[in-house]
Structures are given as C-alpha cells and as structure tokens.
Batch of 4 targets.
Target 1
Amino acid sequence: MDSLTQFALGAGVGAALLGPRIGPRKAAIAGGLLGTLPDLDVLYPFDDPIDAFTLHRGATHSFFIQALATPVFGEALVRLFEGLRDQRLRSYLAVYLIFVTHAIIDALTVYGTRIFWPLFPDPVGAGSIFIIDPLYSIPLLVVVIWALFKGNWTPRFGKAATAALAVSTAYLGAGLAAQQAIETRARTLLAEAGVYPDRLLANPTPFNSLFWKVIAVTGDRYVNLYVPLFGPQERITAYIHPRGTEHLACLGESEALEKLAAFSDGFYGVDLEDGEVVVSDLRMGMTPNYVFRFAIAEETGEGLEAMAPERRRSQRQAEGDLDWLLANLSGEPALRPVEAPWLADLSGPAALAEAARPPAGPTAGC
C-alpha cells in the first residue's frame, strides 16, 4: 500500500493499544513511524533493477523476521515512554501488530509480499485491493488526525479508534469476497465463449473496489475483461491482446526473463521496441502503460542478445482513461479508448479463437 496508508494503519493500531498509557498523540506518532519501517528495504542498493523490483517487500515484511525485531523496538518504547515502563507485554504486542498489519495489507495488493520468508520464499499477493484506496484509508486517517490533536485518552476516542480499525478490516474482507465473485463471473463468461484460460486474476481498477479488471492469459494472448461489481453482464467489456511471446523465440535462456516470469506468476507480455525486447508485468498498470517494464535483450546483426536489464518507464494512464473510469463507476458502460482496436465479442462460441486481432508487429529475427 501507499506510504500514507501504512503510516495511518500503524498510527491507528498504536493509538488503540498504546494510547490509554501514553496518550493518543504520542501513540499515533510512534505507531505511524513503526508502520513505515518495513518499507525501508527500498533503500537497499540492488545492482539489478529486476532484483530491486522482485525482491522488494522481502525479509522486512516477513512475519518471522518481524517477530525477531519486535523485542528491539518494543524495548525501545518501554524505555522511551514512562507510561509503558510496566507495560512490556502490551508494548511488544503493539509493535508486532503494527509490523504484521503492514505486511498483511501489502500482501492483499497484487505486487505481492514475502510474509513467510524464509520458510516460504515466494511472495503472497492476493490483488484484492488497489495500492491506493481512499475508502480503506479515510477512516484510519480521520482517527489519526484526531489523535494528533488530542493529548489525553478518552473512552470516546478509544471507541472511534476501534471502530476505524474494524471498518477498515471489514473493507479488506469485503474486497476478498468481491474478488472471488468477480473471478467466478469472469470464468463463467469466458467458458460460455469457449475460452478456458491458463491463468486468471481479478484486481480492482485504480482507487476503488467497484470496477474490476480481470486478466485471463491463454497461450500467446491475454484478455482484459472490465467487470462491474454490480450490474448486468452487458456492462462487461473484453479486449484481446497479443502477448508478444514470439519475440522470445530466439532469445534462449535468460535469467532476467525467468525472474520476471516467476514473479509475475506468468502474467507477463513482451514487446519489441526500438530493437529491444521489453517484458511487462501485466498485473500492474493498464494496457499498454504498465508500471514495471524491463528491457532484457536487444537486436544485433546476429539476432537477439541478452543485455543488462534496464527499466523502461511509461505513462501512468492513457488519454481518456479518467472519463472511461468515471463513466463505468457511475453505471454507464464505456469503451476504453486506447484498447478499442482490440475489442472482442465474447457472446459467441470459441470467441477467442475467432477474434480478429491487430498484427502483433515485427518479430525479432534469429
């Protein structure tokens, strides 16, 4: 999640658990600062941009490492605040819950988090909440702002802090339930069209949990379905895109590609841009403006050669995206302009096999 939300969550947990002993203001500040600590791993100087991408949210987000770190920071709180001198267990519990809740909400985003490292090193990423979701963050921010202006604990504030944490947690649960409903609906629609994807994932479109994007990968193509949480099937739109995997035919073994394929769980696409093979994580960002894109090979006179990976940035949104998103959120289905050439009709059998697709572009030669 974004840094502001992580601060707010840590501050909320800190205020609820430590506020009765040291006051809401001090507890919120201490909790917010502790809630940002796991993300300091971004300061680690990785030499490889792909490692910086795939290894973020690693050891500092592990429940086990956080348990080992808890006594250090818990003891610091005990020594720093007089009101906690006889509250060592409460202080340790607060620190661990602040760390763990940070990791949990990160694990609910699509990026993924190594919460069980090193016993289970692969990242866990549900993808049930967008990385910035105001509906999740606002209740926590209200309580945190209140706490910053409140020096003394009152039962009324305690009830508000508890309610904010309960509401935000319930929202996370509702997101998981919505994701399952969206994926079930998408699989049913695709099956009726004769499409049986190799892998499928639903995650929310930006800043909300009411309008979802479902990515269905099938062979050398992938389908973007945009599905409202509430509304008839007629409001669902689908776009079929080439994955560009033919550009990899002459690449041979590539450690960079293996890392990206594993981290993305197979949700990746390939483009040939200015003589470079660029691999994108299809889960993060909107076609074609993906957030994480890496050049891993380049064309030479003798074909493709692996290169030192370099990140290639793109615009965060395409023209017309905001109007398209607002229209669909308001219940007025609209086509996404940048994807319009790939619009597909999934109403008939074997729709994916029969769908007309724009040419994938030039293929790198061997």
Note: Residues 227 and 236 are 5 Å apart (CA to CA).
Target 2
Amino acid sequence: MEKFAFIIHPLDVRDVARKFPFTRYLPERLVESAFRLVPPLKVSRITGVKTPYGEAEGWFVACPLTARQMLELPEDFVLERIIQAGRVAEKLGAGIVGLGAFTSVVGDAGITVAKNLNIAVTTGNSYTVATAIEGTKEAARLMGHDLRRAHIVVLGATGSIGKVCALMLAREATKMTLVARDKSRLEQVAAKILYETGLAVTITSDVKKALRTAQVVIAVTSAVDTLIGPEDLLPGAVVCDVSRPRNVSRQVAEQRDDVLVIEGGVVEVPGEVNFNFNFGFPPGTAYACMSETMILALEKRYENFSLGRDITIKQVEEISALAKKHGFKLAGLRSFERAIDPREIERIRARAESRLDAPGEQQLVGVAP
C-alpha cells in the first residue's frame, strides 16, 4: 500500500467552519488570529484509492492559515508552518506530500519546503495544467470557438501554471494576451513563447482591457479578491478559473447567462475513494493537484516533481500519461460547484450568439459592440 499526504489550508474563515463549526459565530479577524497559533494537524485519512496497478492511502494535513494570511504574514513564518505540516505528513508515514492552494505559491513554490523534508514534495501543478488545458479546449469547442482564431487571454501568465498554460496554448493560437503585474517577467514569458512557438503575444497589466475582447480566458492568479466581474466579459466568452480563491466573481453566474465559466482541475479518482472530509467537491472527485500526488504515490515515484516556477511541457505530458494509465480523468465540466451538461452549454451559446448579433444588448451587459 503506497502512502501520500496532502497539505490543505482554509481559503478564508468560512472554510475553518468545515472542521470547527463554532467559528462561524466569531469575527473573522479573531478566528484568523487564534488559528495563527494552532500547529498543523491531521484532518482526515484518505482511503480507497485503487487502480489495476496499485493501491494508495493518505491523509489531509491542515496548515491553519487563510489565503490572506499566507500572503500578508512574513514569508519565513508561513514557510515554517508549511514545513511543520510536511513533518506531520512524514510522521504519518507518507512517502510524498502535495502542497495545496497557497502553500504551493509561497516563496519559491515548494523548493524550500522540499529541502527541509525527508519525503518527496510536489505542488501538483503539472496535472493542474493538463486538466485546465483539456477542460478549456472542450469548453471552447462546445461554445463554437476555434482556438486558432480566438483571442486567448491568460491571467497570471508569469506564475508556474499560467506560464506553461500559455506555452501550450500558443502552439495552436494566433492571438494571445498575457496578463500579470510584473512587466519584466511578462516580457520574459513573451520572449520564451516567441522563441519556442513563433507566436508574438501581447502583454499587459490591465486585466479589464485584456478581457474586453477575449473569447477564451484561463485565470490562474494568486489574487485573494476576484478579478473578473459580470461587466468584463464578451457574450460567448469561456473562462477556465483555476484559482482558489476564485478569480471570477459569483456575480458572473448570477448576471451573465451568455458566458461559460468552468472550474479548472476537477478530477475523478479511481476506486472507491473516501476523503473523510468535505472540501466542497462531489464524492469521488478531487483537485488535480491532489490527484497528481496520488498518481506519483501509485507509481512509487517518491521524488520531487512539480516544484518551482518553471513547470515544463514534458512534465505535463508525463503526468497526463500516468493519469490515463491509472484511470484518473477530468470529471466533466463544472461551473461554480455544480455539473454543467452539454444542453445547458447549448443554451448559453445560443444566448451569446443572439446578443453578439444585437449591439444594443451588448451595450446593456457592459460590453462594447
């Protein structure tokens, strides 16, 4: 039986209430301050991961810091807490530990954590990229977009996930805009894409401007607050929101019935997996980053895998092949925690097409005709 662990943390104080219900009655800042003092702890045991090639079990280990704290507290303090969580995984017997959510973003994206542990570490970003690309391509196809002609926008293009997503999509695209805050790093990514694919991309730090003409968007920033509102998107736009917390406001779902927002990286896990903890997904499914950790354990690949900010296409293709071997697969398309079927997508597409043909309606939803 192979063994793994996965480090999770509350995105905000509402997630703390999943494990400690009494906290929902307390002020948010009080809860954050109190849990800053709580050491990492085992949350649950994960059982039932089984494929024709092996079995695995694991544990969720919590690092009790919210996303906001991960970004605002001193980096050394946060890294030490993540390392402590990794040591809990070691004591439990895990051979590899995955870094979830913002634990994979802090500092050097897992490299320092790996240096301070005696077990393998992965961020899971390679399989996250693979499923995000697969889901985006399928959603774009269903909405009638040809990636060779669509305007593709990547938000968070200088991050480890965003950069390799842009590189992979650039092999098909003819029009792409990269968005991030750091201009010099954007220029480096743009130069790499030009060298490797021949595509000259546009770069900007202006999210709203980039989205104004985008048909296909991959959102993968580490922003705590939402970046995409209902007024930002063209009718018919497809958005793959890989980020947690979300980059897309829930108001988009409430006010825009002519755009398709999908969740990136929701995966069906083979076997009769039981996580013994509610992290908001349907039974039998997990984030792609969690799944990468399981896949590496099943393969007995107890080695550091997706670390740092330079994930390669080769890594993405390798983990994709291993996922297919073991029976991990994309869990259909989901939008704001619910499954979305092809018939609903057909209705979204029909509404979008009618509004694109009616300039007054475009103006009504805040999009320039």
Note: The longest helix spans residues 75-92.
Target 3
Amino acid sequence: MSSAVIADPPPHAGRGGRPRDPSRDDVIRAAILRLLGDVGYSALTMDAVAAEAGVGKATIYRRWRTKQELVVDTVSEVNRAWTIAADTGSLEGDLRSLVHRMVEMMASPVGAATRSLLAAMQYEPALIEAFREGPLAVWRRAYDETWLRAQARGEVGPGLPGSIPAEASTALFVQRWLVTREPVDAAYADAVLETVVLPLVRRTG
C-alpha cells in the first residue's frame, strides 16, 4: 500500500516570530494522526500533541491558533496528498485510480484520523463548516477535475460535478466506511465503478 506524503501548507500570514521549520510541521502532523487514531478528537489536547511530537507548545501555537485549526489543517493536508490528479487518458481509468486511492486512504492512519474528526462533528458543530471547507473540499476538487477532464475529452457532457452520478461515485464507499464498517477494498471499488457509477455516467452523458 502506498503512503501519503505530507506536503507543506502555505505559511500563515502575519504571524511574526521565527521562520517556520517545515520539518517540524511534518512531525506535528504525524503526531496528530497518531493521537486522533488513538484517542479521538474530543480527548486530544495541545499538551498531548506537543508531548507526542517532542516540541514545545509555543512551536505549535506559532503555526496553529486552536486545536480545531490544527486538526482540520492537518487532516486536509494529508488528504490532499492522496488526491494528486492521475490523468490516465480516460474517465474510467481516472475514476479507478481515484477510488483506489480513496480506499487506501480509508485504511491508512489518515483514514482513522479523518473518521475520528467526522465522529466528533456531532458534538462539535463548529467542525462541520471547517470539515466542509477542508478535507471534504479536497476530495470534491479531485473528483470535479476528473469530470472536467472527461468533458474536455468528449467522454461526457457538462454538469457532472454535483450530480447524482458524481455523488454515487463516493457515497457507497463512505457508507461502508462510516456506517456498516464492512470491508472497503480495491475489489469493492471496482465493483461499484462497474455496476453503479460508470453505467449512471454513461446514461447521463
């Protein structure tokens, strides 16, 4: 299974102080992923993050002002690494590549951290918009780019982003991952593509 590379986010404007050390960002993000998987969002504290990462709290607060900002930024950034566009030359190839990466993400520490954040949203309403603008937006952009490439190649017509076929391309995976907890693997991803998503897209397109 491939692993996500944690990319460096853009620097926060107007924070002042010493220049940021990108290697510290990676260490802190890795600590966040471990803690989210172990204790969940609600029990996570800045003290625990600092101890797990082996840095001072001041180092964390120079980068992120609140726990919510720290966690959402981390989960968004590591999800972004899983959605790097793969232009295979066909819609089927692009979708297969993207859903396989989604399946790998779900089984990784990134997936455990993302699921922990989703679970916390029912108790932390402020997280809902942050999640929508963060990790969810990352995956939506990746799928929208896939539909737009297919449109440019003449494989589909306009209007697929936000459509029912587009929603179907992820809904069944998320249902298993979050609700039924049944296996979500590459074989299941291929079956969903071949029996649900691609037939819907061809019918719509």
Note: The radius of gyration is 18 Å.
Target 4
Amino acid sequence: MSSTKERIYHWNDLRFRCEEEVKIAEALDRTNTLFFPNSKARLTTPAGRQNQEPDFLIFHQGKWGILEIWHPDTQKDETRDRLFASHGISIIHYCDANRCTEEPDHIVREFLDILSQGEGDRI
C-alpha cells in the first residue's frame, strides 16, 4: 500500500485523479457517449498478467478507444499502448492537459471523429 496520498476529484459518483479528467468527463457526458473513466483492465503482458488503467475507455459508433490526458511530466507508455492494441483497442489518443482544461468539448469532438473514422495514434 502506498503512503503517498493522491488527491481524488469526485463528479457524478465517479472518481478522477485530476481536474482535467473531470473536464473531459463533463464533455463526454454532454455528447451522451458511453465511457469508463480510470477503469482497471487485466492484461497479459510479457511479464505476465498485470493491471493497466487508461484515463478513459470510450465506446462510440461500435468502436472502442482510449483517451489519455498527457501531462508534461509524464511519458507515453508505448508498451502499454501496444498491449491494448493487441487486444483490439488500437485507437489511443493523447491530449495535452492544458487543452483539456481550456477546450474539453473540442477535444472530445476531435476524439470521437478519430474514433468514428478508425484513425488514430497507432503503435
């Protein structure tokens, strides 16, 4: 168990790790899109079975995609992205945290367009 306390943000009985996630959740909600925030997935990795937690798992027009909020102090996890792609979730889109705060509706529309067209960040 970690001794580090993370701040938890609550919205509509859901939990988030940052304000940017809440902004994106509100924008997704306005589009009536099915989404799962911070849901843990159990995947087979080269090191064995492990838990992975994407920021948002989104279902739109028959397709699954992951929307990740990118903070300047974090790195993209390309290994994890490849694992999700190997399980059929190949649309993984990273958005800048500042943009999430400033224009969450635009980011959500952009992501849903990418998902519906079947194009995205592929590893």
Note: The domain at 19-117 is CATH 3.40.960.10 (Endonuclease; Chain A).
